[in-house]
Design brief:
Layout (H helix, E strand, L loop, with lengths): L5 E8 L4 H12 L4 E7 L4 E6 L3 H9 L4 E9 L15 H21 L2
């Protein structure tokens, strides 16, 4: 287990049903250090917050019959040095996530039927 909090974004396939979402969430949630798991079924994107390593996450997802690829990994999330104003998020992490989502939409638009 890692000591430093991180925000890890994974691309997981195949995922198309609520059962898929539940299976992936349960597999990842069992890992020590995981705080939150969010799954977007439409894009296959899984966002994990906590003190857990990439290899552990990929192994957990693959143990339930899915393929996983780490897209981004941001260390130090949630360990700010001071209070933030209400509604303000980590701009770097937010921008990375927004860029990733734009790229995913382009890929779907490009490769869709």
């Amino acid at each position: 287990m890692m000591n430093e909090c991180a925000q890890i974004v994974l691309r997981v396939q195949p995922m198309s049903t609520e059962d898929c979402r539940t299976t992936v969430i349960e597999a990842i949630s069992r890992l020590e250090g995981v705080k939150t798991v969010n799954v977007d079924l439409t894009s296959g994107v899984v966002r994990v917050d906590g003190a857990v390593g990439d290899r552990e996450l990929v192994a957990a997802v693959e143990s339930v019959g899915r393929r996983a690829l780490v897209v981004t990994h941001t260390r130090g999330v949630g360990q700010s040095s001071g209070p933030r104003a209400a509604g303000q998020s980590s701009s770097s992490s937010w921008l990375k996530l927004q860029l990733f989502m734009k790229l995913m939409r382009r890929q779907v638009d490009c490769c869709g039927d």
